[in-house]
Design brief:
The chain starts with a helix and ends in a 7-residue tail after the last helix. The protein is of the alpha+beta class. The radius of gyration is 23 Å and the shape is elongated.
Length: about 425
Amino acid sequence: MTAGAIYDELDGRAAQVADQVIQWRHHLHRHPELSNRESNTAALIADHLRSLNLDEVRTGIAGHGIVGVLRGGMHGDRTIALRADIDALPVPDLCGADFASKVVDNDYPGGPFPVSHACGHDCHTAMLMGAASVLTDMRDRLPGTVLFVFQPAEEGPPVDEKGGAKQMIDEGALDDPSPTMAFGFHVTPYPKGYIGYRIGNQFGASCLAKITITGQQVHGSTPWMGVDPMPAAGAVITGIGQLYRQVSAFDPFTVSIGHVQDVGRFNIIGQTVTLWGTIRCAVEADMGDIQKRLDTLAAHSAQAYNCTATVEYLQDVPAVQNTEEWINAALPTFQRVAGADKVTPTIPTLGYDDVSEFVNKYGGLYVTLGVQDSEIDPKTGMPVPIPGGRGMAMNHNPHFYADDGPLVTGVRLHAHVAHDHLTGLLAPK
């Protein structure tokens, strides 16, 4: 069979599973689960993979992670890991679809939380399930091995729990056989069906920052008899806004405080205030310097109010690095799947994705797939809403949505990349 005929068959089989992929996506969207709580999601995935009679279905990895192993019928020494993340976010669902989530998790640490797939992981999961169907049907023509990696806790587990990509690696989930390429992609507000890529950082480096400011608890009517940590917390938050003046303006980064936690009540000045935030860096080497500057800011700002401050850095995630060699090797595949006019460099982002753990360890690529009613502005190269469409909403926004149409493109993308890598067409020269 010629290469062209194989690609036609991959595309035909992807079309055959398209409706099922959409059904899975709608089900997952209605029933989202937060990081390290993805039990029902994992059960759905495992049941499907078992129905395909894969060589192995490994479950219970790093919590609710799953790896399906498909060994091709032709000899080959390459192994590709196709990865999808499966967890949802503590965000309300305002996407407007009739399958919008109404789930509330009352037991999650810090909750109760509304839960939704406002980042698109429902799409990622459904597309990889579809790709597993397509590639299994063609196993006799595949040289090498495909690992279908369904990863929990990409959004970060609760701080006192382990999880995510690094934990899957630490537990040896991908040791046998070890991948020669890791691949995945993330849905974004780019135009529907567009494949986006960057040479260098596709996503930035990240860490979680926990700043604990300690004073002395006292009644709210007598603040002079204690030490109020709240003004010190305000000074730290304000001072963070000036950190950018201490780092090169040509190295983008951000420090954002997303949650302020106090222990007390309206008429009690509490003992501590805890600030929870995130640091993002476009240049990974800047992370240590920014952490030191935040340490200094927190300690000295707190001291000015007779308080103390400690800073902890948790859940370090390295940047997603796409090398030029891997991109050049993959561009013909991307253009075949989407069309040359729909493969485009993307704008920089300080978003993060712990798929970097897989890509950094095994080599490979992570790219994006457009799913919204947008078009590329020829002057800026940035996506803008199309007239009469649903508009644009960024990932993690309660209004984030994904059109069902591009899902079959995602199935095809997984399948073509897997075929091309296993046959040696997609690999650095």
